[in-house]
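Whiteboard transcription, Tuesday session. T.W. wrote the structure tokens on the left side:
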């Protein structure tokens, strides 16, 4: 692996900036299984909180835990912290605010934060970078946490870290303990659907977009494009949140009115992302220079904010 690539993934973004907690992150376990288990104890996944309030949580294996969440998670706190805790320092600060001991095993339910996979991945990547381990977040699709739903894949984020001993990127899912048949700290590549391949297969008629679900219930080529942009930006150390979209996708109608030229541009991007290390230089060039791929809107930042005004 080229040194410049590893050096790049040691750098942080505004989201993974570990500097406010560098000393604390370095005090956390170096053993990856111990570390990811510790992270599990700090959070409630949004879907767990939702399931705890369903009329029939008994159909879920962890019904006792769901009942505890229902009765112990305060009604007045956020149903989800994703909109607020966008960065690793923000997540960490809130955990300390709720419990001054910081990351602790057996954290009380009332003191946990409610975040989803992108946010847990950002937190783990930040901790690994603080420890001097190259790491990057990845957006794609997985099925192993909802096997009962057959050949259906759900949007998901994981982390890759570079193992110097194995001389390769290792896939880690720190979002939850899914009781998988494989090691969640070393996920086989075929257990995670890389969005670049999914996009190209759907575009070429080799796969059906209906097999890929975004945000629990949405599907469509536009939702695959969201995941493609999330993964591209994450590969560029810019782990944008779910509500951050390219300007040409602010409205569903905008995406479905894209020219074939622009769709082919996305095909080219996906092709490069099939091997992001081999194509690292070209991906970096596109990120730095292609406004179509780089500029994004957020809930408070729209097209009008990106106007290039000529100042006389």
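and on the right, the sequence the group agreed on:
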């Amino acid at each position: 692996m080229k040194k410049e690539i590893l050096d790049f993934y040691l750098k942080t973004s505004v989201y993974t900036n570990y500097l406010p907690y560098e000393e604390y992150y370095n005090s956390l376990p170096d053993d990856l299984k111990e570390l990811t288990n510790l992270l599990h104890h700090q959070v409630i996944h949004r879907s767990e909180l939702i399931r705890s309030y369903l009329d029939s949580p008994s159909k879920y294996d962890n019904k006792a835990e769901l009942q505890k969440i229902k009765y112990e998670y305060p009604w007045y706190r956020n149903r989800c912290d994703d909109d607020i805790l966008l960065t690793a320092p923000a997540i960490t600060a809130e955990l300390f605010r709720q419990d001054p001991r910081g990351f602790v095993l057996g954290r009380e339910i009332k003191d946990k934060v409610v975040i989803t996979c992108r946010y847990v991945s950002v937190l783990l990547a930040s901790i690994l970078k603080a420890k001097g381990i190259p790491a990057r977040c990845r957006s794609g699709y997985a099925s192993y946490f909802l096997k009962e739903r057959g050949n259906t894949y759900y949007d998901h984020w994981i982390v890759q870290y570079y193992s110097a001993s194995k001389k390769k990127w290792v896939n880690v899912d720190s979002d939850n303990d899914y009781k998988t048949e494989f090691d969640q700290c070393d996920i086989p590549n075929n257990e995670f659907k890389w969005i670049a391949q999914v996009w190209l297969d759907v575009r070429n008629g080799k796969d059906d977009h209906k097999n890929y679900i975004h945000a629990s219930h949405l599907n469509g080529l536009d939702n695959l494009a969201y995941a493609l942009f999330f993964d591209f930006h994450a590969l560029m150390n810019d782990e944008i949140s779910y509500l951050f979209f390219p300007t040409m996708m602010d409205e569903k109608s905008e995406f479905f009115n894209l020219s074939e030229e622009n769709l082919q541009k996305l095909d080219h991007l996906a092709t490069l992302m099939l091997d992001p290390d081999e194509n690292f230089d070209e991906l970096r060039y596109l990120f730095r220079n292609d406004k179509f791929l780089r500029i994004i809107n957020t809930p408070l930042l729209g097209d009008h904010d990106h106007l290039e005004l000529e100042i006389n």
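Someone added at the bottom: Residues 17 and 126 are 6 Å apart (CA to CA).
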